[in-house]
Specification:
Number of helices: 8
Structural class: mainly alpha
Strand content: under 5%
Helix content: 55-70%
Amino acid sequence: MSPITPENAVPTPAPLMAPRRVFHIVAGSTIPVAGIYAPYDWLMWGLVAASLLAITFDVGRVHWPQANRLIMRWLPIFKEKEANSVTGATFMLVAALVAFALLNREVAVLGFLFLAVGDPAAALVGTRARRGRIFGKSVAGTAAFAVTASVAGSLVAIHPVVSLTWWLYAGAVVAAVTELLPLRVDDNVSIPLVSGAAMTLMVSL
């Protein structure tokens, strides 16, 4: 991937947050739903194919700035920093491939469910909160993440693939705290993998 220079940089305005949040919920929810219902082999091959397509898409955008400008203009779902770099969707797909390859299927499903519903909830509440900020983020947004993720996990636990246990709620809190912390890793990677790893440890207790 070529370095970003003034010649190939793509100046774009901040994306419309409502379309991005809707896309995040819909696209992000596809992974845990597939994790529940799809046969494991199909799931893994699908994630491999989707990851390769996403990486190819990002590499192509950076190498063809004119096409990139059109994509940024007509698809208002990207953050400004993603205009000339890897998108959050690509990070999410690669992280899903790693999670379902290495972690228990149940905790991988929950980790990506927490990401899909909790991250938009934190953004929605956090942008409106005026007080109580840590690391530049709202404590209210973190609480909204934990509550929304816990509720979503409880609903998904109706399916026998997911257990309704104490570590589900602890995992939701870990996911919320991970989103709050100023980690240098993209949230689409850190939230599902850290919460998934934490739940894996909790299952063994």
